[in-house]
Amino acid sequence: MAREIVARGLTLSLRHAPCAHICRYCLISETRKGSALPFSRFERLVHRFFDWKAASKPDVEIRTFVGPSFDYDLDTLQGVGRLRARRGSTFETLNLGGLRMRDADTLKAWLDERQAAGITGFHTSLAGCDKTHDRWNGRAGDFAYQTSILRLAGERGMGRHERLFLAQNTLPVFERLLDVLDGIPGEVRNRYVTLFFYAGLATRYESERITEDIRDALPERIARLRRGRFQDWRSEREWVPLMMESAREPRRMIMKLDVSEANIDRLESSSCEAIFAEREQAYREDYRRMPALDELCARYGDPASRKLYMLSRDLEQKWMDMHARETGEKVPLD
Q1: Residue 244: Cβ-neighbour burial (10 angstroms; 0-12, 13-18, 19+)
Q2: CA dist 156 → 112, 122, 186, 221, 308 (Å)
Q3: CA distance 4 to 251
Q4: Cα(29)–Cα(24) distance, rounded to whole angstroms?
Q5: 91-123: per-residue pLDDT in tens?
Q6: Considering the chain, what is the average pLDDT of its residues?
Q7: Is there a smaller number of Cβ atoms within 10 Å at the N or the C end of the chain?
Q8: CA–CA dist 35, 55 (Å, integer)
Q9: Which pTM does this prediction carry?
Q10: Distance (Å, whole) CA 279 – CA 177
Q11: Domains plus CATH for the chain?
């Protein structure tokens, strides 16, 4: 039996602001290539999709991603804010990952401009501290750079969100990381610890996954930071019985559509209904080349594995990768 999917929405993405470096755990894999498509054309297309949803598809979720970094010029920043508003949210927090390094005076001016444009805080993703983080993020001095931005932001009354990755080699320096962050002024709006997803470049680092034993013995200072959407860290042996309860149900997913100079003319001349249907058909055909979830589990699952994953989707992706290596079948769209 083949794997079935139900498309519950669409993410339209634009590679508009390339990253200045590549993190080893990046979900995107290649982040230094940018599209030549002007943001204004992308924005018009996305507004069409929001209009379509409002008029006839209230149950369809429309999302956007303009990246890979958030190193936007001010016009793009304001445009992203308009798109966020269509979803009923605001755009007040900038991710620091992938930013170009700026000298001290330029950085202060950059911060002041963004604060004046309505940005009230920053989001940092840190994998350990000092050289440990720099290795994971692929750039010498990145930890010092990100924390310097957090410090300058705090001095300006701006807040911060902190995502802290826990792996085998970040655990020994984790409490040191917390000490550094606790010494930075400003409001901590959210601090949480996560594992690596099984996606993109991070699939190469399965040996870095922590285990049940490590999870159950974490110091309280770290353990209490498991919160939010990704707090259910389960091992493969713990995930398998849960996944098998709904193994024959279709996978509900948000599809993705990369918009670029190569396809914008066609997209602009097509209806939103036709674009969504075409994308859904491509996803259905892709997933039907894969065995059903229970068959994947029977072939590739390890019911004795104590390595931890945050999402059942991580394990399904891992099993599909194993199937692809064994059979030569291409992994489906994700």
Answers
A1: middle
A2: 9, 12, 8, 28, 39
A3: 6
A4: 9
A5: 999 999 999 999 999 999 999 999 999 999 999
A6: 96
A7: N
A8: 30
A9: 0.94
A10: 43
A11: 5-232+256-265 (3.80.30.10)
